[in-house]
Fold:
Amino acid sequence: MLSSFTQDEQDAIYYDKFYGMSSIRNLTVWVSASMSDQKAIDSLVSHYFSGTFRPTRAQIDLIISSDGATSIKILELNDKLLDAGIVSDPSQISN
Structure:
């Protein structure tokens, strides 16, 4: 998912206290950004991850764009929820 980043940058993003992808609460910001929530995007772009680096908008876009890693994972999750019968309509997931 973060292969275009160095290992240190990947760790900073994944384990960050406020926006790290390792917690569900923080991951919701990434999902919101993937769904074009400008406030979430601005938060990610302006955040100094783990006190080590601040990603550029282009780097954030690699993760959240419609063909980016987060969006692909969201689509995979949509399919799993639909296949499992947990939801019957994809709009239940994306809204």
User: Anything to note?
Assistant: The longest helix spans residues 69-83. Residues 7-94 form one domain.
